[in-house]
Amino acid sequence: MKRKRSSINDLDLDRWREYDDILTDSLWLIPERDRSGVHTADYHGNFVPQIPYQAMRRYTKAGEVVLDPFLGSGTTLIECRRLGRHGIGLELQPAVLKTTRERITAEQNPHNITTTALAADSTCVGPSGVKIRRALNTIGSDHAHLAILHPPYHSIIRFSDSPEDLSNCTTTEEFISRFGLVVDLVTQFLPPERYLVLVIGDIYEKGVWTPLGFQCMQQVMQRGFSLKSIVVKDMQGNRAKRNLERMWRYRSLAGGFYIFRHEYVMFFRRDPD
Ligand SMILES: C[S@@+](CC[C@H](N)C(=O)[O-])C[C@H]1O[C@@H](n2cnc3c(N)ncnc32)[C@H](O)[C@@H]1O
Q1: Closest Cα to atom 17, ligand 1: which residue?
Q2: If you count Cβ atoms within 10 Å of the first and of the last residue's Cβ in the chain, which end, N or C, has fewer?
Q3: What's the CA gap between 91 and 121, in Å, rounded?
Q4: Lowest mean pLDDT segment, chosen from 68-77, 129-138, 240-249
Q5: Which residue puts its alpha carbon closest to atom 27 of ligand 1?
Q6: Mean pLDDT value across residues 139-163
Q7: In angstroms, what is the span from residue 8 Cα to ligand 1's centroid?
Q8: Domain range list for the chain
Q9: Superfamily of segment(s) 26-237+263-270
């Protein structure tokens, strides 16, 4: 019997046994970052390329458009070049963007796709929406097919001094509400039944665990998305803690808490109209 082809990706379910590289469990243990091509770990706070890789393989076809409103060092757009997906990324910091653009264009572009890295504040729904619309016009599409959101985990890493930077929000409430604006921005460009992927971690501060991931999850779901999966991904290379293992172990035992070793990759599908 011929199996149905997916309308959301290029996987051929008749050949499902061959897709060893595609993860299907909700626990992702990724011991090694992909450092091939122009990928590096230089940008403090960037995600492993395996995350956008997995998301694009599952939720896009070749030639479709991926939107990333927290571009950082450009990991998503580099993966776009490799996988033949168009990519639009937004990054607040012009200085970061300069290096990011150089890195992205240094990656080969065998599928001849368009990657656009825009200087923009993703919480400015109107003006940033205009920039995304222009980039989509250049590609020849009126919408994106997948959104990948990797915001700051509030104040865990301060990315800049800019007040627009989500890592400088003074309270969790402000962070959550401004994150919601970014979801508003991407939702404009994401049709029903398309996917939004959120990569986020929680915070432990002053003796209290704040479930930032679940609070951000609520923001997405309040905007007409259904939760499809929560993946727990191991965090191996947290620079701040790498050389301080013993001290953190002591703190954990003394303070009655567990040391973060995970972050979340949450998958949502926009509800039908
Ligand atoms: C966790 S990093 C994303 C890293 C990225 N996934 C990568 O692999 O390089 C979050 C990024 O969001 C940027 N950012 C913070 N607030 C922003 C805003 N309001 N609009 C756009 N970008 C913002 C930060 O400068 C930082 O580069």
Answers
A1: 165
A2: N
A3: 7
A4: 240-249
A5: 72
A6: 97
A7: 27
A8: 26-237+263-270
A9: Vaccinia Virus protein VP39 (3.40.50.150)
